[in-house]
Design goal:
mainly alpha, 13 helices, 78% helix, globular
Length: 303
Amino acid sequence: MNKIVQILFLVAISIYLLYGIDISKLDISIFSKMGLFLTILSIFLSQIILSIRWSVMSKINFKKSLETIIVSSALNILLPARLGELSKAFYLKKFYNYKYHKTLSIIFIERFFDIVMLFLIMCFCAYEYISNNSIKSGILILSIFILITTLFFNSQKISILLKKIPFKFLRVYTQKIYKNIKKLLKTPYPTLFWTTCLWMTYLLSNTVFFMYGVNFHLSFQETLELFIFFTIALSIPITPAGLGTFEGTIVLFLTSHGVNKVNVLMSATLYHILIFAIDFIMLYIFLLVKDIKFKELIKNEKS
């Protein structure tokens, strides 16, 4: 059923993206080599900061952390629903005997802090530039979610409820994850700092690409709105690496701002390719250094 939904979605998004395309209107001169180079640097920097954040949270050294991020980023491109995130647990357990429950706890905290950071960026955008009530309602919903999550992991009643789970393995494992999450949340400032740095590099690569990599004459406000728009869209795990969703949201946003559709589609595709390329180049270097074949890595992750 999931595959049918993915196929139908890809067919629908492909029709939307290709309908009315006039290839003769493609203007290659809108691209800037320097802007694209700076975009590549900022994307690479985000991977480094992502590795530092993982190192800080997991208490493992940067080398092991970088390896983990490289593997998970590449597998996120190949697997649907961001299942590459779970490869962190399998990789660290397989090669470094790092416990599953600790990795799963960190993944949860990562996502929580990412939501907090997206919420803060949306707040800035909404109250600095936008008077749209629907966006402000969305921010309110996110605020409630963050509050509920914080209260959830600081409530003694949750611990009592977890002890009542009927299946022993699930009960013990869930309590381990819960205790580790509480432990991580006791010292949130290093994680918050590196999460802020990470999202600033995400925003930097988006701004550099759409303001300098391609000449669409966009303002910072428009690039910020676009960043929020496709980040929320990509959080819906329909296809591997947001294939189609990424391009579709960018095309929808920029064509509504009067940009030529064929140029937008080409730029969105190029941006996505740059992200893919950096992930796979880093993975290729990793496989060479570790002397591991990709098939062996996939086999290890599945096992």
